[in-house]
Amino acid sequence: MGDDEPLVIRRLKNNMLAGLESRFPLTDVVVAATLLDCRFHGINEIEEFMKTKGTTKVSFLASMVRSRLMTEDIPQNKITDSAGEVGTSSSVNAANFLLDLARKHSATQQDAESAVENECWTYFATASPEHLQPYGGDVLQYWRDKKTCMPSLYALARSILNIPATSTPSERVFSTAGLVITAKRSRLNPIRVNRIVFIHDNYLKESKYSTVTALQSQLNSLRLQQQQLEDTCAREAELREVASNERKIRNEIAKIHREGSTQAWA
């Protein structure tokens, strides 16, 4: 944003940016999907996300593999006695706790975590956008060929990249307009429907709007802000006009000086 932009334009940009960030937040799944596409490793948003989280790309991707894919290596069977499946809940919980503790500190689990980190290191060290050219930009086909050498990352890519970015049926099921227009509201005016949808998407559901009095107070505040913005725009227009008149006067003075100098030489 430029410093010479009017106040109204700057506020408009800030509001639009806040709206986009609220509707399209940068989540862990989105970042993981971006990292699994080697064309987008170095974008600024990912670097800022890693700085905010205080982690690295390798650690982040390895943690995503562990949190979404890795399962327990030791099966947790029910504790039974010789008389049958008769065990108390306390004994089962104690056994599960011991199994979790053993799994956490077992060599097998540590080796698995080390293998995942090694895969991440190898991927970030070797992957480049040119590697997707033989696949025509198909990231899923790229990871399908990496299934043998990077099994953990392949499983993560298959679980995340297969999620469609959008779906027309789901949009219709959960759309606001579909909930507004029903069999009993089939004669709503289209303009009124658009206004209802706009209010639904932009109305802040906070405690300060819980009563009519609070809503009226907020409306008066918005009107005051609008008046202040209009006054600011008017002052900016006046300043532009003054600056324009000043330039005209300076040009006239310079013209008079040039004509006087010409007559003196003549």
UniProtKB/TrEMBL annotation:
The entry lists its GO molecular-function terms as: protein dimerization activity
* Record-annotated HAT C-terminal dimerisation domain positions: 138-202
State one Pfam family annotation: Dimer_Tnp_hAT
What is one cellular component GO term in this UniProt entry?
nucleus
UniProt-listed InterPro entries: HATC_C_dom (IPR008906), RNaseH-like_sf (IPR012337), Vacuolar_transposase_reg (IPR052717)
Q: Which GO terms describe its biological process?
A: regulation of transcription by RNA polymerase II
Q: What is this protein called?
A: HAT C-terminal dimerisation domain-containing protein
